[in-house]
Design a protein that fits this description.
The complex is a heterodimer.
Chain A lengths: L3 E6 L7 H9 L19 E9 L23 E9 L6 H8 L4 E5 L3 H9 L5 E3 L12 H10 L2 E5 L1 H4 L3 H18 L4 E4 L11 H10 L4 H8 L1 H15 L12 H32 L1 H5 L4 H17 L13
Parallel strand pairs in A: 1-2, 2-3, 3-4, 4-5, 5-6, 6-7
Helix pairs in contact in A: 3-4, 7-8, 8-9
Chain B lengths: L5 E9 L17 H5 L9 H25 L3 E6 L4 E7 L3 H10 L12 E8 L2 H29 L23 H14 L6
Antiparallel strand pairs in B: 1-3, 1-4, 2-3
Helix pairs in contact in B: 2-3
The chains are: A alpha/beta, B alpha+beta.
Chain lengths: 324, 197
Amino acid sequence: MPFYDLNVPWSTPNSELPRTLSFLAESYLIEPNADADVCAVGYNVVALNFTITGKLPTNFACAIPDPLPFVVPSKLTVLRRLTLVLTTPVNNAALTQLASSYDILAVRPVDEKSLLLAATSLDSDIVSLDLTQRLPYFFRFKTLAEAVKRGVRFEVCYAQGVGGDAVSRRNLIGNVQGLIRASRKRGLIVSSGAASAGACRGPWDVINLASIWGLGQERGYEALSEEARKVAVTARLRRTSYRSVVNVVYGGEQAAKSDKKAEIREKGIQDVQEKRKVHVLDDTSPAESEKPVSKREQKRRRKAELEKHAETKGSVVTPDHTKM
Amino acid sequence: MVRLKHRYLLVNILYPGPVATPRGKDQQTLPDTIQFHKPTSDSLTPQMLMRLIRDGVAELFGDYGVGVVAGSLQVKYFSAATSTAIVRVSRAHYRLVWAALTFATRLPHPLDEACVMQVVRVSGTIRKSEEEAVRRARMGIRKAQSAGTWMWDESTIGQGHGNVGSEGGSVGGAEAGARPGIEDIEDDRSESGDSGD
């Protein structure tokens, strides 16, 4: 299971960034035949995070260039994320427009009202709070649960706590515990928020921290891998699919998968049609249904099918139910 | 017979900061992998490492932390050349020491270098930790060699940061032992009724 780090801050003079990405991706290659998915030392997917505070920009293009201006480690997948600090009220239309040029959208509430807004109505993928501040409100299960049900995940950033400042560390731990308690260990993701390579920590170290703070090792592992993957995937589906129909892409295995779905669907339709045919025959002419299909008729039908198959090449051939 | 059970943490000391290139004139920088895993200076002794851990536990978990951990805390192995250490902790409280290592940002005083301590393997016996240390050292050498040959074959200048992915071999490195190791240990803990996660 690959590890995700969904918050690596992006800023325009980004001298530290190539080194940070290298550090995050850093892993010692062990046996060549070992399971390539199990990478306990480094991260596989990283999201560069661009933060907007205050007014929304008029230009909705992605602030993070594509391709990136420096060399990225080859094993690392880089996503682009936008974080909107909710100092001004925002509506969903503006959000979706902004989000379309990024891979992931996050919102950062600044007070309880904006947290409620973000959790219940705003169309974002992640709700990221600044957990190094003393929050004047408590987290409530109802708000968090509703958000998680909608597919929104809450993010914990560890870098500022690990940085060395005792006050932010204490606040972080206290707030994380409140978040874990209120969310009942569901719907949380952990990310770094690391501005430099020195603030990054290995995935298992982060999981250990999460387990000390109350999340537990299994949930911590999920938070770093499975939940984060869900965020990335749902974010992509939100942008590329319509009403839960995923785009069908022709290309090797993916083609086979979608074809299988189509095949099952078509088979289902065929079955129903066949059943209908039988019913009709029963109703109108019982004599004909008893007579077996003549060889001439069989040959004619086979030929028709071949022609149909030749016409629609590459699509699925439905099985012929008459030829038992 | 009551047996004191321990956990042996295999710790890597990584250096995220930039490193002065050995060849000054030539503008080629070392590949990032080699920079991150560079050797520690000889002035870091196992005793200093112990003190670092104990102070870290004291800062994070107070007197309680030091109390439960100090009795069986020991640096069993330390190699400055590979920046690797094996730390022994009592089984019940190894997470505290692990957290103290995670929160460590700089090496202790005369060195004062920015570092990242990464626990690479947790095992119940010292032998497994040793084997893992040996395996990683071997992989490190192999990786450094291949990174070096890449650099010299390409003979490009200023190719600093892109080298991590250039080594041949498996994609997305596999810490083959560690994950099952940790899970085994977790099962063991839950069986013996330790208060856990």
